[in-house]
Sequence to fold (816 residues):
Amino acid sequence: MSDPIDQARALDAADPLRDYRAWFELPAGVIYLDGNSLGALPKATAERLAQVVHGEWGEGLIRSWNSASWIDLPQRVGGKIAPLIGAGADEVIAADSTSVNLFKLIAAALHMRPGRKVILSEPGNFPTDLYMIAGLEAQGLATRRLAPRDNIADALDEDVALLLLTHVHYKTGEVFDMAALTRAAHEAGALVLWDLSHSAGAIPVDLNGSNADFAVGCGYKYLNGGPGAPAFAHAARRHHDALQQPLTGWMGHAAPFAFSDDYAPAPGIGRLLTGTPPILGLAALEAGVDLIAEIGIDRLAAKSRALSEFFRECLAEHGLELDLASPTDPARRGSQLSFRHPQAYAVCQALIARGVIGDFRDPDILRLGFAPAYVSFADVAEAARHLAEVLENGEWERAEFQERAAVT
Amino acid sequence: MSDPIDQARALDAADPLRDYRAWFELPAGVIYLDGNSLGALPKATAERLAQVVHGEWGEGLIRSWNSASWIDLPQRVGGKIAPLIGAGADEVIAADSTSVNLFKLIAAALHMRPGRKVILSEPGNFPTDLYMIAGLEAQGLATRRLAPRDNIADALDEDVALLLLTHVHYKTGEVFDMAALTRAAHEAGALVLWDLSHSAGAIPVDLNGSNADFAVGCGYKYLNGGPGAPAFAHAARRHHDALQQPLTGWMGHAAPFAFSDDYAPAPGIGRLLTGTPPILGLAALEAGVDLIAEIGIDRLAAKSRALSEFFRECLAEHGLELDLASPTDPARRGSQLSFRHPQAYAVCQALIARGVIGDFRDPDILRLGFAPAYVSFADVAEAARHLAEVLENGEWERAEFQERAAVT
Fold:
């Protein structure tokens, strides 16, 4: 391989997505490899938010629930996310947080499988997925069962109401075989709920092609919806009529403005709503989703694979042999590379001090995300050089240790 | 009384809060009497949001969870709401929607009163309060009991786990006696949860002086947090250690970044958190709360009473005798006046066509809110004149009917 920087220049020049980088506000002097944790700010989002704040809230006031169609935002944004995850526009809604949506759908699955109480997942799944099962367990309504990912199929039996898995693992980036595991769950009479937090907007997902039942996902990672963006929830159309979830707030009512004392669920996906939709967050999320949809998920996934493979080549060029926690086959991982290192935290801090922002996952994972909408091959080559220097000169030993909250 | 408009000029000139109106962006040609549904936009909020978007998200990216203290926002904003509702700073947290917070606290109360399943409320309470009880009822965990407000005390018995009431009624503005009803509930061995959606930021509330157990409330009305702003949840300090709620998301974990498989609740009010905090919404809410706190709740309540009483005087001056659904004693109502009229919907539409924005509540309520931070006495005099003209010349009969979603 020629000099990585030269190579990167050529790759960037040939990159069909190269112009999209300018659509984002990115800080000078920073190589951002943490879009898997918080996506960067699209310039269009800043403009859209200013319009929502001044025009719709300030000028339109309460009238904007109708005139600016605020009331339709959960369905509209959900409908735009749908094609990114292989779902119909009427099968996805943007609402609440991933955690709250997990609760709704786990509870809905329990209701649809009377006599079965087990929610099956894997140890090491993203914590909030496991904790939301625990919440229903503490209510006496569910039993949590965890099986290692290689034994998931064996753990499916007639007690399992729901298989809850994260499609792309947050630590390693490994991708579950959605179609195969969905089939296995269905054969055991269970439903399946896929957490797409690290998938949506990063790699193609085919919920309907896999015959999936339910899904949730995060708005602030590859969908670039902003910090703490609303999440999304999916339910296959065939389940809509039977869908009963316990967070029966007024926005999920069939006629919220009739103000009746008794709850009646809205038809369709709308019954997954609970409280008043968060308009600022939804407007930002819509702008982010619009951008991802315009670029196209296949092109994004292709570039993501190219970026991460190029990073590994650069590491090899620098003579670095790191312990890759992610699958070596790019088709089997999401848009990230994770490396095990006994001093992963310090290495991450040393990189951040150099302006290369990745993140650390307890206890020993250095996680680098390659958000293809705005990360360039030059970024990748530079990041590899920085990492090589940090490791070679022991810089990480001098890195400042500090407690760090990092929202995955 | 002299000419209402002259009178209004004198009242505005003497109003100690008159300068705060300029702190808000208000559209020209509009008299806004719907701040009880969506508070107006504080200019400081627009500035703060621009800073959060460009500076903290765009420039700071993931680092802002620490450097901009995003991670502390739920507690910080909750701590600022606390003095407005008579609670300690460590007893309130900003999170999720009012509906979702209701679910958490109703479930927590059921957990604290084993053997009791009844949640007592009143018919005609704001629907989402009743619907969230219904959600737990559908889970088999609760039994909903409704008693008319004059018979609440009689309906308290040894089966009641929780009394759930809205402090200021959304339709009539009538205020419950918080201290007396809390005492009655406690005497029956029940806990009490107050919905402060139409109280917080409008009238003084004394949760701790009333010995209340729990409260929730809305961020987008008198707290001016913006459309669909995050809500707040309160739990008295004495209950924190026993507090167990089912929406056990990772942000309510004692150590969220340890990523352990098992849930352990955070100490204190933090265990009411579920998912990742919505930063845009929380930042806007903080700016709104800051403004209300600066003006001061006692001054706001005093002006609110003066505004609504002046409105009634203006109506009398116009010879209008309307059917007041709100208490005549301003100390017994929130910051609104509601009138019953068989054509309330059409009258409301005709007022809106004239630029006077109030709202309609099914089936026959015209509701006018007097948000004292930015409504002037001149607004009130003009609104009364418009209402008189609409009613006198039958203008409402020609008002355009249209379905209207109006988020209370």
User: Anything to note?
Assistant: Chain A touches chain B through 95 residues (CB under 8 Å). The two ends of chain A are 34 Å apart (CA to CA).
